[in-house]
């Protein structure tokens, strides 16, 4: 039996210039199977257009005090075994909600972020790690320091990558 080719959807607040090379490289590897969903703008920042990757910037960003909701994020077109990638900022409530829905539908969740921040308060870090542990299948860090930090905080080393 032939294994289904999985799709990947990355949810981001906006697409910034410094991420374009990463996304274009992912598009080279995964082609039509990968896409980015983001808002067109956040305040004065505007999402950068991607040349070789599918994207959907039609998701209005609403601020609710310290929290953010991006209207229109959905799992439409994704099936069990597909993958979503979310940023690790727990202030983005729509991203957390889409991760909950993904888990219930059998869609894999990659939680992407710094995970260790010099400015983070201990309580905030513990809350974020507790949520991440329950919502993610895999943790993706920027550095090996992040990997070490997560493993020290009880994450399975086989599911944490830099």
> Helices and strands, in N-to-C order?
EHEEEEEEEHEHEHE
For the termini, the CA-CA separation is 32 Å
Strand order of the largest sheet: 5-2-1-8-9-10-11
Category from helices, strands and their pairing: alpha/beta
Principal-axis shape: globular
The total of beta strands comes to: 11
Approximate helicity band: 25-40%
Low-confidence stretches: none
Determine the number of helices (DSSP H or I, runs of at least 4 residues): 4
Main sheet attributes: strand count, strand direction, barrel closure? 7 strands, parallel
Strand content: 15-25%
Average pLDDT reading: 92
* CA-atom Rg in angstroms: 16 Å
Describe, in plain words, how this protein is organized in 3D.
- It is a single chain.
- With 162 residues, this protein is of the alpha/beta class.
- It contains four helices and eleven strands; from the N terminus they run βαβββββββαβαβαβ.
- β1 (8-11), α1 and β2 (34-37) form a beta-alpha-beta unit.
Keywords:
162 residues; two-stranded antiparallel sheet; 11 strands; seven-stranded parallel sheet; alpha/beta
Write a short abstract of this structure:
This protein is α/β, with parallel strands linked by helices and 162 residues long. The chain is 29% helix and 25% strand. The protein contains four helices and eleven strands.
Give the helix/strand layout.
Blueprint: E1 8-11, H1 20-30, E2 34-37, E3 41-42, E4 45-46, E5 54-56, E6 61-64, E7 67-70, E8 83-87, H2 93-105, E9 108-113, H3 122-135, E10 138-141, H4 144-152, E11 160-161
Parallel strand pairs: 1-2, 1-8, 2-5, 8-9, 9-10, 10-11
Antiparallel strand pairs: 3-4, 6-7
């Amino acid at each position: 039996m032939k294994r289904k080719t999985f799709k990947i959807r990355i949810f981001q607040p906006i697409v910034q210039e410094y991420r374009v090379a990463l996304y274009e490289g992912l598009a080279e590897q995964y082609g039509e199977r990968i896409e980015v969903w983001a808002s067109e703008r956040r305040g004065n920042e505007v999402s950068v257009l991607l040349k070789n990757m599918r994207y959907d910037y039609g998701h209005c960003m609403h601020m609710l005090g310290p929290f953010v909701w991006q209207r229109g994020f959905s799992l439409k077109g994704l099936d069990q075994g597909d993958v979503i990638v979310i940023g690790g900022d727990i202030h983005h409530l729509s991203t957390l909600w889409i991760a909950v829905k993904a888990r219930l539908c059998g869609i894999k969740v990659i939680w992407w972020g710094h995970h260790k921040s010099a400015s983070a308060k201990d309580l905030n870090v513990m809350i974020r790690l507790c949520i991440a542990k329950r919502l993610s299948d895999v943790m993706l860090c920027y550095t090996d320091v992040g990997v070490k930090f997560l493993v020290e905080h009880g994450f399975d080393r086989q599911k944490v990558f830099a």
